[in-house]
Design brief:
The chain is an alpha+beta fold. The chain has one domain. Helices cover 17% and strands 24% of the residues. The chain is globular. 26% of the residues are buried. It comes from Microvirga vignae. This is Lipoprotein. It holds the Pfam family Lipoprotein_15. One of its GO terms (biological process) is alkane catabolic process. Keywords: Signal.
Length: 127
């Protein structure tokens, strides 16, 4: 009984301090009409931008209004293929394999992929 209580208390401390809370990936893979894609928690397709540098977003201002970044909390931590990049305004954005991730304002429901191929520089983020 004492061991169970100690284990539960330790797990509670880890969760409260965020040690376990940061292990979940910010997106998941889902099937779309164009194959597997990364999607956010609401099932909305995520995209990459060819004009981004590795680990750096080059989509700001009007671009970021049309292509909202997949924002990360200031306390978010990198894990595996997932990293956090700092945007020009100091906010944090999720990246997958070094590529910052974005949503597309014209996708209105989960699974839509209308942003794929826009201006030949936007592409579905694939797992």
């Amino acid at each position: 009984m004492k061991l169970l209580f100690s284990s539960a208390l330790f797990a509670g401390v880890l969760i409260a301090t965020g040690v376990l809370a940061q292990t979940a990936a910010p997106a998941k893979a889902a099937d779309t009409s164009k194959g597997k894609a990364l999607v956010d928690a609401k099932g909305m397709t995520l995209y990459t931008f060819d004009r981004d540098a590795a680990g750096k977003s080059n989509c700001n201002g009007q671009c970021a209004q049309n292509w909202p970044p997949l924002m990360a909390a200031a306390s978010s931590a990198a894990s595996g293929d997932w990293t956090v990049v700092t945007r020009d305004d100091g906010s944090k954005q999720w990246a997958y394999k070094g590529k910052p991730l974005y949503l597309w304002v014209k996708d209105t429901k989960p699974g839509e992929v209308t942003g794929d191929g826009v201006n030949n520089v936007w592409h579905i983020a694939t797992p």
